[in-house]
Amino acid sequence: MTVTNTAAFAQGMALDVCLCTAAKTSYGDGVNAVLLSSAGTNGSEYTHVAALPRATVTATQVQLYAHDGVGYWFIASALMPAYTMAQTTACVPTTLAHIDGTAITEFNPLRLQPGWKLYAAIGIALAGGVVVSAQRKDY
């Protein structure tokens, strides 16, 4: 993006999703990580990242990685509580936060530069899977 003193406005918005089923037990590689999102041409801001199980789940770690084309950087995690899937109960989403623990929001977005990607993973395998979603603004 050309550097100017003109305000940068979002050029598009998207909801990205992926399905994680395999357990990821290492934290420095892409094994069992699933592509969630690719940053836009001029970078992207993520205003919300959350996970929701599609089946009964034991407590598991939800993981988020930034990928620069070479390395996988473990940047966020959250504990998804155990939950028994039933049509008579609400399935509460697990939200992910920045590495410092602050919430990823419209006012405190996760920023990703051009060429980088976000990958998601879970700590314990789940055949039904865990859906991870990210709300994204491209610049």
Give descriptors for this structure:
139 residues; mainly beta; Jelly Rolls; 4-stranded antiparallel β-sheet; 9 strands; 0% helix
Summarize the structure in words.
This protein is mainly β. The protein has a single domain, classed as Jelly Rolls (Sandwich), CATH 2.60.120. 0% of the residues lie in helices and 44% in strands. It is built from no helices and 9 strands. The strands form 2 sheets. Strands 1, 3, 6, 7 and 9 form a 5-stranded antiparallel beta sheet that branches. The chain has a 4-stranded antiparallel beta sheet with strand order 2-8-4-5, with no helix packed on it. It is globular and about 50 Å long. The mean pLDDT is 93.
Q: First CA to last CA: what distance?
A: 9 Å
User: Over all CA atoms, what is the radius of gyration?
Assistant: 16 Å
Which class in CATH terms? Answer: Mainly Beta
Helix content: under 10%
Structural class: mainly beta
The overall pLDDT, averaged over residues, is 93
Based on DSSP secondary structure assignment, what is the total number of beta strands?
A: 9
Proportion in β-strands: 35-45%
